[in-house]
Amino acid sequence: MRKRILIALLSITVAGILLLALLFTDVFYQNNVDAAERQLQIYMNFFDASAPFTQEEAESFSQKTDGARVTLMEADGTVVADSYAPVQGETREDREEVREAIENGEGYSVRESGTVGENMIYYCVRIDGQGGALVRIGMRLDTGVSFFVDALPTVIWFLVLDILCCLVFAWLATSAILKPVENLTKELASSASGSEIRTKYSELKPIAKMMNDMSADIGDKVARIKEDNRIEKLVLDSMEHGIAIFRSPSDVILINKTAARLLSYEENEPIPLFTEDAEISDLLSAGESASVYRTFGEKDYNFRFTMGDPNVLLITDVTESMAAARSKNEFIANVTHEMNTPLTSIKGFAELIAAGAVPPERIQGMAKTIIKQSDRLANLIRSIINFSAIDSDELPDYEVDISELIAELIGGFEPKLRKKNIALRLNVEQGVKVMSRRERLVEILNNLITNGIRYNKEGGTLEISLSGGDRPRLTVQDTGIGLSEEDKTRIFDRFYTVDKSHNGSGGGFGLGLAIVKKLCRRAGWELKVESTLGEGTAFTVVFCPKNEN
């Protein structure tokens, strides 16, 4: 507003000064013309009417009149002599001053001379004593433009002085005018903190009241919006799912922490994945709702795009569901494979016996094979049942003496130990008890000891250690084939065996360690494995402290 007032004042002042300059220029010009006319009349009084009309007379009279142009003409306007130019014989009857002198006895004219090429004022008189001959006197006359140009420096000084005065006046005037408004603005700014706008000017009081009402209403709305945004952000950021609402990769309306982390999003920057991932970029360009799956680190995510205005992206962690689906498929495939081997053997031998194609002396051997494969199938089914039953085990725990349990179980493994000539070393602390159940610990011990014998070397060593303390530790260590780095990551997977065999030649199904892992995890115990390929493996179960169940 101050700027507009200043510009208006300056414009008015400059226009006024220019108009005054033009007006004064015109006045000065007219005064100059009048003075020139009087001067020419004075000059004409010195002319000798009886003198001959010759070139010498014209030049002589010109010298007497300070170099004025003198033209002597006959009564019809034909030039006889001219002090400025040799134009004798030419006619000047078409000139305004000549025409007036012929008609009225004298005439004036201000114009640009075609002969001289300058602005001139002419005064022409008819000499009746010489048969109506004409005498014309002319002198140079500045134009109105030249007057204005001559006055321009003065005008510029006036303009500069006027601008300075206008600046000072405009500043003082606008300050006086705008001060109440500025005070009202400051009051409005301070009202954001809750204070009321006040003014001593009655003209501004209605505005102040209106602003107070608006400020109160806006304050309430802003407070509600902030609270809603806070709750919305709290809810969104606490969600496990990622949510993003956007119009384009660079126009993100809303995004929660989970989505920002997964999409590597930085505020006021485009979402990198939307432009770098070709499939997602094409999907966004097509504007079609769809779902895509992406893996970040060790987790799988479902990106579900709902296209509209705006677009919505829902990111869901599907790691567990996809792992469960893969595990289910693998489990079914492995169970089918493991059961198919003994069933095929049993069916084959039974069909041969039923067809009478087996000599009597071989029937007993085939029957033993059928019994062996049946036992193997029964063991597989029992292991699967035990594995599945772990999750539904809700019976209470009680105190079990592990040292006594080891002593009871170890005798059942002596035939297998002797068969592979494996030396057994027991380093068992007596009286070590944990909160569990007997059948759970039996399952763990049987699987760890069986594993230590099966994958041990001929003539190797199997050591069972048990120590007490706040957290009892059970370790079963063998000197067998050991584990590779890949084996260490998969040893507890269901149906995984170190020799990669599923045909039963190793005697195991790959469920033993999976059962041990599941039992330990459900009980809250820690299961560790340490192994060096070709040197042996040690499995350690670290039980919970005695005051924890």
UniProtKB/TrEMBL annotation:
Highest taxon in the source lineage: Bacteria
GO biological process, one term: cellular response to phosphate starvation
Residues in Histidine kinase domain copies: 334-547
Gene Ontology molecular functions: phosphoprotein phosphatase activity; phosphorelay sensor kinase activity
Membrane topology: Multi-pass membrane protein
Enzyme Commission (EC) number: 2.7.13.3
Pfam families, per database record: HATPase_c, HisKA
SUPFAM superfamilies found in the cross-reference section: ATPase domain of HSP90 chaperone/DNA topoisomerase II/histidine kinase, Homodimeric domain of signal transducing histidine kinase, Sensory domain-like
InterPro entries for this protein: BphY/WalK/GraS-like, HATPase_C_sf, HATPase_dom, His_kinase_dom, HisK_dim/P_dom, HisK_dim/P_sf, Sensor-like_sf, Sig_transdc_His_kin-like_C
SMART domains, alphabetized: HATPase_c, HisKA
UniProt keyword terms in alphabetical order: Cell membrane, Kinase, Membrane, Phosphoprotein, Transferase, Transmembrane, Transmembrane helix, Two-component regulatory system
One cellular component term from this protein's GO annotations in UniProt: plasma membrane
Presence of the UniProt keyword RNA-binding in the record: no
Main location: membrane
Catalysed reaction, written as an equation: ATP + protein L-histidine = ADP + protein N-phospho-L-histidine
Subcellular location: Cell membrane
EC top class named in words: transferase
PANTHER family in alphabetical order: PHOSPHATE REGULON SENSOR PROTEIN PHOR
Name used for this protein in its record: histidine kinase
Organism whose genome encodes this protein: Candidatus Borkfalkia avistercoris
